[in-house]
## 1
Amino acid sequence: MSCGRNWRDNELSLARVCEKYPDAAPFVIIKIDVQRRGVVYTEDALRQVDPAIHMTNVRSDFYDKEDITPVSLLMRDGTSIFCEGILAESVREPYVVDVVDGKIVLVDDGLPIEEVSYWEKPDYYDKKTSGGVPMWHVVSARPQRITIHPNQFCDYWKTPGNGCKFCVMAANFKAGNKPSLLDVKDIIETVSEAVKEPGRNVCVFLTGGTLMGGAEFLDDEVDLYVDILSGISELFGGKRFPSQLVSTVFSRNQLARIYESTGLSTYTADIEVLNKELFNWICPGKAKTVGYDAWKERLYRAVDIFGPGNVNTGIVAGVELAAPNGFKTEDEALESMLSEAEEISSHGVGVVSCVWRVLKGTVFFRQTAPSLEYYVRLARGLDAIRRKYNINVDMDNYRRCGNHPDTDMGRI
Amino acid sequence: MILTLSTDSRTALADPDTVKVLAGIDANGFPHVAFKDSLRIRPDGYLEYDEIIESSDMNKVFVNAVWFGRTVSVLLLTGARRSFLIKGSVYRAIIAGWEFKERYLTARKRLGDVDLSTSWVIEPTFEREDTLEKRRIEEEERHPLLRHVDRLLHTRNTENHAE
């Protein structure tokens, strides 16, 4: 997909998309557009940042930063706008975060669009583990979620050409000075501290890069998550607790081991793109080691273990239009994506979309994300499919990830 | 500049004996009504209530209202049987941060082992005392044509007067 300098003339504006889809929440549409295009901050907006209150530092598997800019934004309806990561150069200008009439607002093309606020940091953020490691190095936060990235690298990137083409994990890891595997004791200690904060967290979330080794393929990754989740489960008396694991897709036996030996309540294995040929091109490592059809089949088996509504799969919405092998038109892509999402959902597996943020350091860094209208149509379609198959959004709603416009739509 | 509520409304909102009702419409146009004891006025003049149940009808009404600019209504009935109607727009949802933590702790202190979904902030845009006697007098002054004529008959008035 290409996008010229006159991109505003070539696609519907925010206002026109809101008019054309009056049933779609303007808040969700704004969120999509901001995530797609990114933000820059004015001096006035940065003066509103209080590092004692707001979250400015973050260390995760795909984004590390310590400057004064806010990590991300919150809208008036409680929805997060996810701004992490450094967007690649784009012909589409980013939104400007400015101060107008004393309020922090998003501005586009000189017009104030919507009021926002900055994510606040949790109480544990400035503390250190008993070993002296800053806790924010170990566990990152979203407004209502504890986020753990135990493996900050990915085995697929160890073989040239095997990494997912939209993924920034390898570039981020190589640019930083941090261990690939975090210490499990540090993680448990930090989570123990984080969960004490009243009213802060509704989910403990784990994700990280693939670990292919072990007696069975991926057993090392399973072992890592079992170690961490077992320790966290003890904090809850061994009972199941609101939690989500986003991992490589595990076998039925591996999932049963995790489910039975920990308090994990929901499971996600991101298929990334809903098309076999594009999966093979965009996620070559996953394609070679697991394969598209087996990925789906393993997700279906996960429902047998975790139950309907407790398993989903994420897609990086928009990569299906990447050149040269992606769909040539948005209509064609949409029809294919929704058809496959319906097939997967009919097995009780939810499909959630993330807005593709074309990031620096990825193989796809020269690509352009689709139009705003495409994302809105896709989000509406996924929301409709989820309602049709009665798939609960609780495991990945607006309070948890905050990066899924389609599950935001499930709020009403 | 938001509408400043009258002293009487403010007093009613602060009175624990006042019955507080919220009303609004959902995405399908269905009305929903609920008692909300936690409804209160904030120092900045906005109203606020604590929604305990994330999946409640009223929470969805409020999400729908903040998304699409719908109005919500507040009805107050005091212990002295005075009532007040306040209409407003939903300004924002407090779901995280220090403000949320304060409200979460307060709600749990007040109600025991409960969760808190959201504290919703409402900007008042309209206010009226709805006590029947007051409204009845206002109605007859403003709309003298809107009454049954038998009430105005000379003999009837005389009879009533004689009684």
## 2
Amino acid sequence: MQTENRQQKVLVAMSGGVDSSVTAALLKNQGYQVIGVHMQLWNHGDDNAERFGSRCCSIVDSNDARRVCDKIDVPYYVIDAQDVFKDKVVDYFVHEYLQQRTPNPCVECNNSIKFSYLFQKADELDCEFVATGHYSQVVQDQAASVSRLYKSIDPAKDQSYFLFGLTQKALKKTLMPLGGLSKTMVRKLADSFDLGVSQKPDSQEICFIGQEGYKGFIEKRVATTFRPKGIIQTVEGTIVGEHDGLHRYTIGQRKGLKFTVKDTENFFVTGYDAANQVLIVGPEEQLFQKTLIASRVNWIRPVEELHGIRCKAKIRSRHDEAACRVFQFENGTLRVEFDEPQRAITPGQAIVFYENDEVLGGAFIDRIGTA
Amino acid sequence: MSAKTYLDSNAGAPLRPLVVEKLLSVFAETRAGSVLLPNPSSIHAHGRQAKRWIAEAREAVAASLGSGTDPEQVLFTSSGTEANQQAIRSVLEPALSRNGRATKPHWILTPVEHDSVLQMVSWFQEQGGEVSYLPVDAQGLPHSSELENLWRPETVLLSVIAVNNETGAITDLAPLVQTVRARGARIHVDAAQAWGKIPLDLKALDADLVTFSAHKIGALAGVGVVWIHSGVRMQALMRGKQEKGRRGGTENLLGIISAGAAAALVNPEKWSEEVGPWRDLLQKKVVERIPGTFVNAGLAPRIAGTLNLNFEGVEGESMVMALDLAGYSVSSGSACASGVVEPSHVLMAMGRSKSQAMAAIRISLSEALSEQVCEDFVSALERIVSKIRASQGIGQEKGRIRVELGKEPQVKGHAN
């Protein structure tokens, strides 16, 4: 296999972190012709200079990636993806919150940036493959002539949830060499390759949100007219408090709610009445629901049965997958019925379907319930 | 990996062999067995020797700038950037304090200046000055007739690039100098790319401040030059006794010696005869073989070594990367600190879109090529352009795109 791959050109998406650095070094060792590419996605401005190093988007990260490429002796380029990132990821992120949806920008970034914009660049540079440092496994199933996507062998690091939007076209050209490794092993490899990044912390938060937090980020960009204050009600219509703009609350949230009446300490956000800018709260049991409607579905590979697919689903990245049945309507909308009620089904989040360790596909949650 | 071909001499020309020889001879002279670089400010024999080398370099530089140029008018700095910024501040700073708050001093410059000049715009505006841009035509050249519209009683300085570093276009300086002179203001000429490439006669030109950069003529990087018209007072950016108090800091001895050695070798006519035919051949082959080629500033008078190209339907930063992967070092726009390619402000001022301005490539030669290199390069370019076009959805099905040299491409409808 390795000899077969000799001198095939692969563009490695390099953030400057441990994972993508090890990805590049592994592929270089396997005989690929590696080209390191760092995407400049966002300019953090002067406010976050201390955290991000400087005015430009992560010069420190770009320099780390450059050092790794020098170390393994491969060419390195930085490409400007700021316009497309702002358009496809940041603006989407803000708009979703203004529509009382809780977005997942990493999913959108994978769909629109890493596995589309970057693929375009790879094609222009005549690369056969694009590699990323995701903890997920791509398998080319020759027998069935499909590409399949599987979870990482390291359940703590598995990133397959964020990758459900990958198409067959993209998967055929994708390498994710870390899918079969644990994070511990990857750090060890970084050390043994002497890449100088083995101790860099994992990135945790949304990359373009600085110290102001997501609420501050949205409020800096959107006039108060579009995010008015309003009242908090129970589902029965009892007014129990006031809110500071619906974008500040997500379903299942308890912290930060300002109640004006008693016996509300166990209330959670359960929904919104967007037309009246009302926040709906209630006791925890109201958070548990069995059905949801989702759209913008992507099936990674053809699914066996389009009516009533039995599988498991995750409704957010840190959710224990639950058994369900998926019905697909002709317009592409999905109705998902869980065997057991699930806590805090949240519009805007992705629902991702699994069959054992294989990712079947996913969609974006639109509504709780069957309507 | 095959050998790399360097086609980026406007960024930094190769060291000339005679310059290297000169530097090695300095080592031999200073002290046998080990390398000694004396401080030119020292009064002892070693110091005097170093001072003499600098004086010789100054004379050689002055001689290369035209007949009857006084070496005392030559100021050495650390770079072309420093030379430009010191020249600009020397005129603008006194104007700011002279005018006080009553009127705002006014600076005119073109939008196609080098970044080291453009960087001073925000500084000047922060200090209370006002800035106007002298428009350029589609070839990137400014015209003195346009100065009339912009001129104010408060105008104190015009900054203009003599030869554009990206396109090689040559500005007609004389009418600009005359207009500015007639109005009693000062003119600063950034001639970094003109040195050694077009004949210079600074005395006849009669500009106030003219700046140069030594590594563009095959000397070491780290030396800039300001030629100062008599009567123009310089402001020191760094205070110190060196350079007659106009530029503090121990002199870059090796750099300055190399600048003198390279200056002694400049011969614009000979260089143009040697390099020009190769640039013309490259251009001819590219235009003939790659449909939809657009030669930026192709209708302007250009220095011999520079060729700036756009290809219809090719956008973004991939060109320079793909050429690098194929073994050719050319440049495009400029890069910011993180390494991201920024669209060329020069081409945008000439009417290119942002993504076209990112896709342009600049080929710049300092010496003759071979037939083989020329042919191989054009073949690689041909292959890369069709690959990127196919990838960006501009296929061959459109047929040959005919473009006249220097005219806008006739085929419309590419992305953006």
## 3
Amino acid sequence: MDHATVILFIVGGTALLSLPLGAYMKWAMDPAPGQANRWTALFQTIGGASADQNWKRYLVTLLVFNALMFTVTFVILATQQWLPLNPDERGALDPTLVFNTAASFTTNTNLQHYAGEVSMSYLSQLAGLMWLQFVSAATGIAALTALARGIAGRPGLGNFLMDVQRASFLVLLPLAVVVALLMVLGGMPMTLQGSAVATTLEGAMQTIARGPVAAFLTIKQLGTNGGGFFGPNATHPLENPTFWTNALAMVAIILIPMACVWMFGRIVGRQRHAAVIFTVMTAFILVKIAGAVIFESAPTPAFAELAVSEETGNLEGKELRLGATTGPLWAVLTTATSNGSVGAMHDSLNPLTGLMPMAGMWLNATFGGVGVGMINMFLYIVVAVFVAGMMVGRTPEYLGHKIEAKEVRFAILALFAHAVLILGGTALFAATALGQTTVQDPGAHGFSEILYEFTSAAANNGSGFEGLGDGTGPWNIATGLVMLLGRYLPIILPFAIVGSLMAKRRTTESAGTLGVEDATFGTMLGLTVVIFGALTFLPAAALGPLAEHFSLP
Amino acid sequence: MARQPTQSIFDTELLAPALRQSVVKLHPRILVRNPVMFTTGAAALLATVLLVRTAVSGGDFLFEVQIVFWLWLTVLFGNFAEALAEGRGKAQAAALRSTKAELRGKRIKGDSHQNVPASELRKGDIVLVETGDLIPADGEVILGVASVNEAAITGESAPVIREAGGDRSAVTAGTRVISDWIKVKVTAEPGTGFLDRMIALVEGASRAKTPNEIALTVLLTGLTLIFLVAVGTLPAFAAYAGGSLAVPVLIALFVALIPTTISALLSAIGIAGMDRLIRFNVLAKSGRAVEAAGDIDTLLLDKTGTITLGDRQATEFLPLSGIRDAELIEAARLSSLGDETPEGRSIIELAGQGEAAPDGSAVVGFTAQTRVSGLDIGDRKVRKGAVDAVLKLHAFEAAAVREMKSLTDRIARAGGTPLAVADGTRLLGAIHLKDIVKSGIKERFAELRRMGIRTVMITGDNPLTAAAIAAEAGVDDFLAEATPEDKLELIRKEQAGGKLVAMCGDGTNDAPALAQSDVGVAMNTGTQAAREAGNMVDLDNNPTKLIEIVGIGKQLLMTRGALTTFSISNDVAKYFAILPAIFVTLYPGLGALNVMGLASPESAILSALVFNAIIIPLLVPLALRGVTYRPQSAARQLIQNLGIYGLGGLIAPFVGIKLIDIAVSGLGLA
Amino acid sequence: MSDFISGLRVAAATMVLCVGGYTAIILGFAQVVTPATANGSLVTNGDGKIVGSRLIAQAFTSPQYFWPRPSAVDYDAAGAGGSNLSPANPELTERAAALIAAYGGATEERPIPADLVTASGAGLDPHISLEGALFQVARVARARGVEPSAVTTLVRNMAYAPGAFFTDGRIVNVLELNLALDAELAAPADSD
């Protein structure tokens, strides 16, 4: 079977699955007024008040809850050596690492400056990190739900604590149970026993780390978290035993981000609009996938002078059982969605292949993280609508909301922040010993390692060019801060936009209004994403992956 | 201000002052109003300082000098575009100002009056204006009737009547009374009158940024900041690669990337939009109103004069049973002989040739009380007029009255107005007067519908008549038997439904509706109250213009959008020109990105910068003229503009930069 | 403040259900239905001693065994990882050259399969390609003193397509292959 078939099955199949899931998520997250589903009462009991909140109240509750998430996990990680469920007796962690890791999982990033099987107790993995994988993802879904309600013209945005429960218990938990059971059937470990010790055929001792992998892995994929149970993430045979678990994991990576678009469309009552957005996002990932697969089929450049077979492409950092296509495919999916788990080592990808994941994170909206991907796309929509709206001769408006200076200011500020976090961070570390001493590879590739790390942190992705020695204090603190800013600015600013939109007189649409449901708008949106999202990073790309590619012998 | 032939922008009369202004506008305080151009200016200044250093300590002086030259030229071109747009109004403003300077008024104090300069006239003062005088200030006629030549403002030389009371009482400073006299109560303080506003408008002095312009400025400034980060981090990146980048080159890259094109043309586009409106003889009180015009969803149009020709015309004679056609026609003709109204003339025209009024006959004129007119020939009283009024003249035969009523109902249902004709004690029949819908108006409404604009016809007619005319004219809806309150109500209802409404009006009782509507166009002949309430004044008193005003508003926004798209799309080519040029020293392999095959790194950088600068004057005509606008749906409009300015913006600079590169390297400049 | 208290309650509820409940369900199911894979796909020998995991590569250096792909972490299953070297890094070239030498050289006509000279992502890839196995048949057969064809047959029998019809190439699990070798084509006793 050729590459195209695998890609078609995984991307196309998930796209189909996302349709009913989107409908279900609308039902679960946003029960029609007066038709509160049977869970509402239970969630009211748990969360206390359930009154509608305005955008500021909703945001405050969200931030308070996220601060709580950070604190709980910070405490668990910092004290793991004294806590139970630690069969392999993992010791204390460096304080900057605790900060970085707590920030990383709270922000749905899952950048890992540690190797799970080396550093973390099972309690840290489950109660600290896996818990955050649920609730940070739920935070994203809740935020999108609230945003969509505002755009739909509802008087309030809903109630955050209700929404976060709906997302956790009605969306993530049931899906996670189903997928995790399939993963178990696919041969994935799920045990609380400590490491096994084997005597190899040649008589050596081999310690085999294992653990409750299936549960952890599943929610890491579904919630676009991406943090691996083991250091090398989903390349580890125990975290990804077969081609089939690998395929299922890729489905899990893009499923909820895709469904979020449909949910958004249903809440704002514009499914054709959602279909246009979905198509634009799909077009982007297909282009990146095609690029990655083609570039990666080139043989490893280091072997140019050696008698190494060239048919299988670049196999450095890849697993044979997962199939030839899936390394680059996974690399694109995981970075298109802010997931960040890896199915092949990104550092060892061919230079131009490595550019594809970076581009995915620069845009960060071609599906993007659960909930937040669609929110990021909303920022591009605001800009696209603004420019396109003028071109049809009207004050720009989006679904009946006039887009004026305030909205444009917040949208452009969010895009600006993304650029500053990535390029500013990279500049600081690339020009100084902070970064220069930590790169592993010479030349432009080392620059790519630094650029990738900040890109991944700002995009809340979490994957890495792992050759980088990123376990240092400066790296932990810098990326920790970048992750926090990269998470909350793109939530706060869109909320402010929606708050401003809600305060205005709404207009009706006519033939003279910019349509947001046709191919022309899709094209405009695509161009906006390219120009506002990607052009900014072209110089950096030129000095990283492009320079490396063109310097190859 | 007369409608003037379009001035060429290369008119030396305009060019010379514009060139002078380009330099004057370099002042930071003026420049800072446009953040992107201010940034460009700052960048140029920095490059100049660095040039001095190069001159002292050595370096590629020739290359740097050219960079500095083109950077300054970019700023100057931007100033030039704005100055040129302003210049067109300045000449007109100067003429108006000289009119204003010589204004004097005869202020009435008790029984006498004294001649004072207009600047001393205050609100509430009463002035006497006699034949040959210029009206010294805006005001309301409180006594007298006069014919006034308003050519100074409207360019229309036919005099108009201004009289106390009613809807023709407003007079404007600077217009001339050509017969009779009037007493005028001043309604505007010095400096706030119509003339002052016009001067300010055509000069662009009071031009506050419109909401959309502010939003666009925010977007462009944001983009500038983003590119500042993208370019500002490059030295650090280069340091990693063990090299360094020359600052003048980075400045060139930065200025090439930031949206200078649209920023330079932004205010010119706005001024030109207002100017187009002014030359269309419509005065907008603010740019905001022009923008809002592009957003209109619903147009309220008065039937009479806008949708139909002002006058109804006779189209048919309908005799009662037993009456011969000829008898009715003759009676109709006779009864209209003394009727000088267009309706009366149309009856005579339809009736055809006949005898003149017999000797000794007396014309009975139409009055508002009797609502009939006719001819007395001895004892014979031939009458025609409003049906109910004619029926009251005599106790006609019951059967004839019944038949007349059914006849006139039929006419009303068909959208016509019936007149009854009687000869003494006999009812003869009815005349069908018809509103004649203006030719071509139906197509206009169809156009508007394609643009998503709904038209609502406002009429005092009864619903039956209104429905028939509405159907014939192709409007989307109508408001019959409309009172000013109904109008206001309708506007509020539309607005509550999220629509933006435009209307025009002239009477005092239109003022609330004009104020409520999003775009209210007051007729210049209208009352002072109406002119105050509306946010535009139509100097030609042509309500059909609303349609064009909408078009001008749309064109203004489209021009902005199109040039923004063009400007931003250009960046792709500029990247491909400059990035390989500046990075090739760090990584020779990156020369592969030089897809245009530019001659040398220096030539590539210069060419991109030159293109970036000269595209501004090249686009000035477009900015002033506005992009081509045709009434069509938003979807088609977007495809068209995206195709021309988006795709064009991607491709044009590749061609342009390559050509400039050939010239630059050919001339040995780099 | 009320946000904080309510937040705590929601945090507790999610902790109980999403961590406790979820883990318990998956763990219970796994331990009952698929205990073998759930505990790491461990392989035991006749004596019941653990000799490794079916899913984890282990070092083989003896010529009579098939050798796995190189490992950047020396087959440390408690600290896995890839080389993370850039694909053009000269270290990769050196490592590959050394491996080619260990495999007895390769030529343009008989190039070494790429998987034998590239480290996997985790350094624990338990498989080699069918081509990679066939490349080693001669050495293994020679070391074991058996017919190469017998080894080839064994290799071919054990090779499978990991993704059925979705994948083109076939792969062999090195530990299982070597166990089968020991069982079916045992080397002459104490050949060393």
## 4
Amino acid sequence: MTWSEVFELLGTGLQETAWMVGVATLLTAIGGLLIGVLLVLTDKGGLLAAPPVNAVLGLIVNVGRSLPFIILLVAIIPFTRAVVGTTIGTDAAIVPLTVGAIPFFARIVEAALREVPADVVAASVAMGATRRQIVGKVLLREALPALIAGLTITVIALVGYSAMAGTVGGGGLGDLAIRYGYQRFETEVMIATVVALVVFVQLVQMVGDVLVRRLSHR
Amino acid sequence: MIEISGLRKTYRSRKRSVVAVDDVDLSVGEGEVYGVLGRSGAGKSTLLRCVNMLERPDAGTVSVGGVELTGLRRKQLRVARHGIGMIHQHFALLSSRTVAGNVAFALEVTGVPRGERRARVAELLELVGLGDRADAYPSQLSGGQKQRVGIARALAARPKVLLSDEATSALDPETTESILRLLLDLNRRLGLTILLITHEMTVVKRICTSAAVMRDGRFVESGRVADLLRGDSELARDLFPIDAPVSVPGATVLDVTVSGEDADRPLLAELARRFDVDVRILGGHVETLAATRAGRWRIALPDDSGEAADFLRKTGARVEVAS
């Protein structure tokens, strides 16, 4: 295989990975934020204290967190088919990626929001802020640097997950590494994939770090 | 301005319950600076948090500016809270916002239209002496400056009442002094009623017109500082602690507490001249308090000078045999 062929494969793989990870990140950010915020609000002493809701939510998140991704991938095939109509291809891979990453990110969101000092929240309540204002302008805004740092970790985890999704026909760099690098002994492809992944992860981390530094005023 | 009666708050955990506030009555008049003094764990913080319903009392009523807060629905309570400013021991500022942004937050919460915020923020920062630090972040400020931001923020909605939760406890003595001066100034210029809790005597000395001593959830004593000093009060002893011997051979040792005009009367000189006795001052202070001048001495009089002690009593000073 010539280098130009390798690069062509690599380009497609990168594009697929970027698409899978990108869309999954977007959906995970929305879902994870929602669940993370609810976990904090419904907790004992929270602004919407509802211990039973909190317990159920916590249980669901824990179940999601305890399944190894490769098993989740297979286990939710019927769900994936119901959502996108197929279980093969990058679009189909986005479903398990998102389902797997949401509980992960939700816990990160929860931890980040708990870092906002209690007296800052109490001060906002004392000022007469609405719950919506407290969530939006105090909790999420104050935790933003931690949320961005957490999202960076999640994106990188998703890159790893996406390689596994590749093995069941999801496409992307993982798929490339397995099919060409492993099964066909195309060492060049393997090396190129690894380099591409390292660069990709490095870039994500760098962007995350810069954003965190810019936003943090602690 | 603040009327509290029969207030009770109990914290329950699985194993035991702790009565944090136990049947407290409190009345703070308009324009008063009222200090609740107590050690940590005395229940004063819970008491303060009950005033703006950060904690729901188990029993009793709280009314601020004539509005009974215990019966309000959430939305009404939110509106009522706009009229009650609060400042905190650790300032509780938003680290993600600048000084101006922190003050603006209070205006956003109270629904001041965007266009009016900028001018009001500038005005508030000017009021607390931080006009030049509007664009700084809290992490770039000193403790005293942070508390000034806290004060500006608390005053954003033009409240009649300010609650102060150990506002100077995290500050050094000089900064404490400057914050107390600011609070006193706001009290006088804006007619702001202040209810504060503290464990620092200095705070009561410097700015409080009335005070209460709190222990184990109850008020041990309360009233106007000037009146408390005249009676047999813990506050007098705590405000003016005397570290001096309580017995001197051949002499009677007396603790004399004076307040108001008496504090500046040459009382001991008069005593010495009239009765021809040698008065020894073992220890003491004379100080300017917020509401009054006051002093307390421990003196030794020769054993046969009963008349002299009677004279002191007649002047209106409080005289106790030291023990």
